[in-house]
Amino acid sequence: MGDSTPICRCRVLYLGSAVPRQSKDGLQGIQEPLRSLYPSEGAIGAKGIDSWLSVWSNGILLENVDENRKQVTRFFPIDSLHYCAAVRQVLIPERGNNNPEPKFLPLDSPFARTPRAQHPPIFAAILRRTTGIKVLECHTFICKREAAANALVRCCFHAYADNSYARQLEGSGSGSSNSVYGTIGGKSNGTGGPVADPNGWRSRAGSTTTLNSVGVNSRQAMNGGGDAFTVKN
Description:
PH-domain like; 10-stranded mixed sheet
């Protein structure tokens, strides 16, 4: 599948992952991991791995190069996705508190809407491990632009809904659904094919979409969405 095309592909700074302990659901689930992975002083103090992150119809592919210039890839199946969001660190003034705790809010939030070089957009994804102890982990990526972070969220939504719909068709005996997007499998490398332009994705009103069921409703919802979404798995 050397000519397969990802839904989108963005350059990111990968900060690593942390296990959410206080909460694992929704926006609250990423707060604790992001506070441990993202430095309080912002991007200037961030240490991570320069990487490419791409979304395919069947999963998320992380690509980077190690200290020996050897290509390293890590693949996350799309059905391991629990939650993802495009957020920014903000400090919300609190009465009687001179040192408010940083919060990570969706990019379409009134508090996070103003672009700031010190605190760039972040793509956060809670994914379930597929080997060993299958705990949930929050993976954190700094993006250069809001459009890229929003694109990753929107593309994950498309991929999850498309994949779930295909599984539902197979389960009902209606045959498989042919996705218009590329699938990671026997591809020759992680970079083949043209890349979707993240400028084509924009945040819309409403910051969270919850998928309690899949199928027709999910397919219809693909035309909407915001800069965060939750799946139940």
